[in-house]
Amino acid sequence: MNPITHITEHQHEVDSNNSYTPGFKYHYETNSLYDLSTKLVCKNSYEAPKITSLIVTSTVGEATGPIIRKGKWMPVKKNKLSEATTKKPKNLHLTARRALSLLLGTTINERKYRVSRPSLGVRSGKLAAYKVTLQKKKMFFFLERFLEAITKENASLTSGSNKGAWGVKHKDGFPQIELKENIRSKKKKASDFINDGSSNKKVISTYFDGNGNFHYGVPSFFIFREIEQNPEFEALKNHGFSITIKTTAKTDQEARLLLSSWGFPWSLAKHSEST
User: Fold this and answer.
1) Is 233 inside any structural domain?
2) What is the tally of structural domains in the chain?
3) 109-112 and 127-134 as β-strands: parallel, antiparallel, unpaired?
4) Helical pair 136-155 and 92-104, crossing angle rounded to 10 deg
5) Between 233 and 187, whose confidence is greater?
6) Which range of residues forms the domain containing residue 63?
């Protein structure tokens, strides 16, 4: 049975407060908790790994206007790449903020640069990214929608091809960006070190940080249907965001077992052989 289909069948379970319980939370409490406690030989259910919070971040530093270079106001230099990956529409940061508000349904926090770095084109006080921390029900609701979107994208793979609907490579079922090495060395920017999944950023090679936390850069906002079908968000086709799932797992293997209980698209056997 498909884990996602099984979970959505209990999407409207009612708790003691007469409010709806997310399907992923119900599945964890009724099925995954006992299964994880057995596999990890936990003394009680409190020792089993669980998700504590989910962090969504979208970098918009290059879209908020000109930057300071060598003490003077100068526009950002254009790269000699395709226009689709380098062209930054006006007010892109406002569009990204509205998209995050639509997806997450909560307050969006602004993250600003604290220290000026002229060599990287950064000045203190400038908007760097939007960050949202989800917990409890909102976290499970968004996690379910995210996994459904990833599963649909993974299902769009054709036989003999490792590319999905938006022309990006896939690894373990997750969309990945196809990196192209430039002949000329470019000047490093502050945004190059932040993984938000955008086409002009490098994507991390591993999903875990060694402490049981999961990181993933979504290549495009268009992975969600409500964003793709809205003409207002057309500028976000090549702009992405990052997702960090914090867990109480002590190791990456425990975190992988936890996320696999919800049907995350990867193979545990393949991972264990590589490690």
Assistant:
1) yes
2) 1
3) antiparallel
4) 110
5) 233
6) 3-266
**What's the whole-model pTM score?**
0.65
CB 151 within 8 A of CB 128: no
Q: Which residue do the tokens 């002009």 mark? A: 200
Residue type, 6: H
Q: What per-residue confidence (pLDDT) applies to 85?
A: 43
Is the torsion defined by CA of 182, 185, 189, 195 positive or negative?
positive
Nearest to 200 by CA among 122, 83, 66, 112: 83
Within-domain flag for 275: no
Burial of 129 (0-12, 13-18, 19+ CB in 10 A): buried
CATH number at residue 54: 3.30.1440.10
Query: What residues are paired with 73 via a beta bridge?
Result: 68
What CA–CA distances, in Å, run from 158 to 34, 164, 225, 263? 37, 8, 21, 21
Residue 194 tokens read as 């932040």
Summarize pLDDT for 183-209 with one digit per residue, the tens. Answer: 344 444 444 444 444 444 444 445 777
User: What's the pLDDT tens digit per position in 18-52?
Assistant: 466 777 777 777 777 788 878 888 888 788 888 88
Q: Are 197 and 218 in contact (CB under 8 A)?
A: yes
| Residue bearing tokens 């299964």 | 35
Cα–Cα distance for residue pair 260/108, rounded to 1 Å:
29
* 160 contacts 135 by C-beta, under 8 angstroms: no
122 vs 115: CA distance, rounded Å = 8
Query: Which letter, b or e, does each residue of 35-65 get, where b requires 16 or more Cβ atoms within 10 Å of its Cβ?
Result: ebbeebeeeeeeebbebeebbbbbbbbbbbe
